[in-house]
Secernin-2 (Nothoprocta perdicaria), 460 residues
Amino acid sequence: MAAPAPSSCDCFVALPPATAAPVVVFGKNADRPRDEVQEVVYVPAARHRPGDKCTYIEIEQVERTHAVVLSRPAWLWGAEMGANEHGVCVGNEGVWTREPVGEQEALLGMDLVRLALERSRSAHEAVRVIAALLERHGQGGPCKEEPAPFCYHNTFLLADRAEAWVLETAGPYWAAQQGSRNISNQLSIGTDITAEHAGLRQRARSQGWWSGDGEFSFAEVFSLEQQPVRMEAAKARYRAGRELLRQHAGRITAETFMGILRDKASGICVDSEGFRTAGSMVSVLPRDPALPCVHFFTATPDPSRSVFKPFVFVDGLKPAPQVMSPSFADDPAKKIPRFQSKVDRRHQLYRRHEAALALMESDPVPDTPLPFPAAPGLRPSRSPCGGSGQLRVLTTPGLSSSAPLPPQEQGQKLQETLRALERQGLEAAHALLAGTLAPAPEELAELFFDCVDAEMKFYK
């Protein structure tokens, strides 16, 4: 029996006037091998000596890197998605093109996500960083923690407070388009190309893929004539995502994107035998530079059974070891030959969520995210996640404080409790973005940690 064809990621961005407020909203599902662990890590800004070791290769380092928060497969250096202190967000998708996929170790697309975030102050600069590194070092190497190679090229969605870009690649070649939309595991830039590799069209002519006459469509020229099953399936997800953006145009909020990322009917929330949505991210980037950007991460699989927890860049951030995987002195991902054995990379939250997931799936609660403002009784001065000041802990009891219930009712109660936790996090974010909540910096520094800690307590 053949292994299930991998399904991969979906990424979205919406700019005003599609959004309900003067903000940019970014979101992504990272769809990965079913048993892969996604961790969320904060890397502070730093000054460096020459040389930067990525997943497989070492490249030239810049003098200073920006602070970043990353959602990443725990075995590698790069990231599936993330944000930096300047309000830049980047996510990547796997694609297969007419250019051969290289098994030789080079930069992964996930390395390029992190490098762009560490080295860029805007989405446009991030496009230039990725393009330059791609041309200099190439892309390639295994993208799964398994001996059998699974390799692909990449597309990227990049956003900041002002604009968004799509960057699509085929080997070292690339095309970029400025604009607001979704991407989903296929080349989608046609004739409307904002910037491109200097040798892109000559490469297409030399290979007989384009005559040189008429308009040049990057997607038509560089896409495979016979698409892999995984890319054919992505077409339906891409169309569904585009339609969901159209339906919500003018009213898009963080909750809108959370609902889209939880949509299993469209295939955007993946839950198959071989692959599933391993982590999810939604970011709100206000146009007003005086307001903070708010980034939400699940750090657990299946967003329909997970909590989006808010993260804000601030000095003195408290680490959240509950969502960081253990490290290994003899890591099989770092030894040559690679991936000859497996290690347990599950972090604390992953373990507790894993135990609760079967309970929640026994009696699922439909996803009904609330639009801002939240329902009565959820006040902006009450955030989800701890602290003794304006951000205070949620008082909804967990299962451990309730009388014994049948398993189905326990699963339903747990989901309701977790959604209440998430709603209060959204309320706090809304108040921050509206300027009606001004917590002390030390409270913001502990916000993500406290939200993770509150979620873990509800799994006891």
Q: What stands out?
A: Confidence is low (pLDDT under 50) at residues 1-5, 368-384, 393-402. The longest strand covers residues 275-286.
